[in-house]
Write a structure and sequence with these properties.
Blueprint lengths: L3 H22 L4 H25 L14 H4 L3 H14 L17 H11 L6
Helix pairs in contact: 4-5
């Protein structure tokens, strides 16, 4: 003999399975599709925020002092020599820059690089 609790549990299980079968077999209404789209957009936005929150803080923007005119007056080869001198004084591996061949950079770019490498640079 089935008890009331067992009968209720069996009835709920049947209803649950029927609801799952209905959800899998029928088409969504336009209203349900709109709700689903809003939920998807919210979940994606929340996931994107969580990924952004895990990123490290960006380094502060380096404010360079103006390039001295005496440094700008130097020739291209002299600026390259200054860079090599500064680089040779630094411990190995502490200085990295994106260009292997600095000869293609402008004189102003080389001056900026010198000031980034050694903010206290004086001639």
């Amino acid at each position: 003999m089935m008890t009331t609790k067992n009968a209720r549990d069996a009835y709920e299980a049947i209803l649950h399975e029927a609801a799952l079968a209905e959800a899998e077999s029928r088409d969504s209404t336009p209203a349900e599709q709109k709700i689903a789209a809003r939920v998807r957009a919210r979940v994606r936005a929340d996931l994107a925020k969580m990924r952004r929150d895990q990123l490290p803080e960006p380094d502060p923007i380096l404010k360079l002092k103006p390039v001295p005119s005496s440094l700008l007056a130097k020739g291209h080869d002299a600026l390259l020599a200054i860079i090599e001198t500064i680089k040779s004084r630094m411990p190995a591996g502490t200085l990295q820059y994106a260009y292997r061949d600095l000869s293609g950079l402008s004189d102003h770019d080389l001056c900026q690089l010198i000031l980034m490498m050694d903010p206290n640079f004086t001639e």
